[in-house]
Design brief:
157 residues; mainly alpha; 3-stranded parallel β-sheet; two-stranded antiparallel ribbon
């Protein structure tokens, strides 16, 4: 007999909010700031999107990861307001919560509470696992398993 689904876990970027242009701009800013020439194409960066260490290792290894991320974060903060929730995202969260599902956010983002609060949906998330909460990042299972542990939910649920 199949197990009843008890929780729904969401990613943030590309699922609840449209951050594509901001992320591309932040990568290109960081790469340009560290004299990467020629700049990689979007197609070359695409396999590594949301994996900042991988973008650094592939295209800007000549500078420290901290310096690279400093430039990336500086630009991303400038573009923060351009990252908006997808239409219907808040309504889906509210609906699922109202239907009795436990809701979690599992994201590589390090600051997600602000936008969730602005959308009026932060209260529906029983846990948030962010980029600073685990040593491994998606697609590694550690962040998802941490969220499930916090929710006291089995993976098959």
């Amino acid at each position: 007999m199949p197990q009843k689904i008890k929780a729904v876990l969401f990613d943030f970027d590309g699922v609840l909010r449209d951050s594509r242009n901001a992320i591309w701009s932040a990568y290109y800013h960081a790469l340009s700031a560290h004299n990467v020439d020629p700049l990689p194409t979007k197609e070359e960066i695409y396999p590594y999107v949301h994996h900042h260490k991988e973008v650094h290792n592939k295209f800007a290894k000549h500078v420290s990861l901290g310096d690279f991320l400093g430039e990336y974060d500086t630009k991303l903060v400038e573009l923060w307001d351009s990252m908006v929730a997808y239409d219907g995202a808040a309504e889906i969260i509210k609906h699922l919560s109202g239907a009795g599902y436990k809701i979690a956010l599992v994201t590589s983002a390090r600051k997600s509470e602000g936008l969730l609060s602005d959308l009026g949906i932060l209260k529906y998330f029983e846990t948030i696992v962010g980029g600073n909460d685990t040593s491994e990042h998606k697609p590694h299972p550690e962040p998802v398993l941490l969220a499930l542990d916090r929710l006291q939910i089995k993976p098959n649920e």
